[in-house]
Specification:
There is one protein chain. The chain is mostly helical. It has two helices and no strands. The chain has one domain. The longest helix is centred in the middle third of the chain and has 25 residues. The protein is elongated.
Length: about 55
C-alpha cells in the first residue's frame, strides 16, 4: 500500500525545485539551449529537495 504524500514534504521541496528551475533558466538563456538546461535544473532541484527531506 502506498503512503499518502504529505503537504509538508511538498512545501519543503518546492523552494529547491524553483531554485533549480531559475538556475536552469539562466544557464539555458546564456548558452542558447533553454530546453536542456531547464529540464536539468528542475531535475536537480527536485532531487536535492527530496534528498534533504529524507535526511530529517
Amino acid at each position: 500500500m502506498m503512503k499518502k504524500k504529505t503537504k509538508s514534504i511538498d512545501t519543503k521541496v518546492v523552494p529547491y525545485l524553483s531554485a533549480g528551475m531559475l538556475i536552469g533558466l539562466l544557464i539555458g538563456a546564456l548558452t542558447d539551449n533553454l530546453g536542456l538546461w531547464l529540464s536539468i535544473g528542475v531535475a536537480l532541484g527536485a532531487g536535492v529537495g527530496y534528498a534533504l527531506v529524507e535526511k530529517k
